[in-house]
Amino acid sequence: MNEQNLTVLTEFILMGLTDRPELQAPFFGLFLIIYTVSVVGNLGVIILTKVDSRLQTPMYFFLRHLAFIDLGYSTAVGPKMLVNFVANQNTIPYNWCATQLAFFLLFIISEFFILSAMAYDRYVAICNPLLYMIVMSQRVCWVLVAVPYVYSAFLSVIITKKMFMSSFCGHNVIRHFYCDSLPLLNLLCSSSRDIELIILIFSAFNLVSSLVIVLVSYILILMAILRMNSAEGRHKTFSTCGSHLTVVLVLYTTLVFMYLQPQTNHSFDTDKIASVFYTLIIPMLNPMIYSLRNKEVKGALHRIWKNWHKLSM
Q1: φ, ψ for residue 14 (rounded to 5)?
Q2: Cβ(226)–Cβ(174) under 8 Å?
């Protein structure tokens, strides 16, 4: 029966953000702008931190990977969402739905631990500045990004495989604008208890463990800052963490609200709003936050602009 259902079900229908026809065109224009800004901003961060010699430090190494991850999960969702605003029927093939879920999980889980690595990097830079380049060697930096990628890929494959090896009983209407795990669970007619437990346990583990690393790092940073004699030095030191703290606060608040609320209180309309925020808005905001609040990034942009201007004259 399970194998029969898997062969019969060839596509899903995505309900999208709204079923009101008059909102489709305005939403398409709005989210096209948001996605374009996100792609340009994150690609800009990736290129800038790669080509500018003054940004070849561990902090910008992690920032480059954060931009890559933001670009990844916004692209896993954004283009299909935009197509659905102008398509007559919002369908997605069965295999594409599985692929979208897998890539989304891969990137969103990776983001938790890249943000944790960035917090640890700031801790070492502020609390052990003399040993910073030794502790945060190139090898250590690669380990701190490779482990999250491998772990996220493993977890993504496990959840996606278990989800799509289950029986959907012919139900194929997803009450969302992309293939997310929670709406898909509601379409399963076979027992989904084991999948729900996996998602609940690992969602809680990913959120809590990564957040604990961030909190511990910043508690130690705060203690080090409070021991400084100069008020100017305290402000300058803490300002280097401002961008990262802003990104962490926005992302974790949204995801805690989305995934850790009781099942009885779950509203798919509320989930859609939260999903729009962390799949499209946050990837657009992150490059802006790091660019506008970071003097080194703004300096790199200014140098590139001057060099380009000289070459064009």
Answers
A1: -90, 125
A2: no
**What is the per-residue pLDDT across 211-220, written as a single tens digit (0 to 9) for each?**
999 999 999 9
CA angle at 254 for the pair 250 and 257, rounded to the nearest 5°: 145
Two structure tokens written together for 309? 């201007």
pLDDT digits 0-9 by tens, 180-212: 888 888 888 877 788 989 998 998 899 899 999
Task: Write the DSSP string, 211-276.
Answer: HHHHHHHHHHHHHHHHT-S-HHHHHHHHHHHHHHHHHHHHHHHHHHHHHSS-GGG--HHHHHHHHH
> Residue 177: in which H helix or E strand, if any?
none
Distance (Å, whole) CA 205 – CA 76: 24
Cα–Cα distance measured from residue 176 to residue 14, given in angstroms and rounded to the nearest whole number: 6
| CA–CA distance, 199 with 260 (Å, rounded to integer) | 11
Q: Is the torsion defined by CA of 102, 104, 109, 113 positive or negative?
A: positive
Nearest CA to 1 among 149, 170, 244, 243?
A: 170
The token pair at 75 is 């692209």
pTM of the model: 0.87
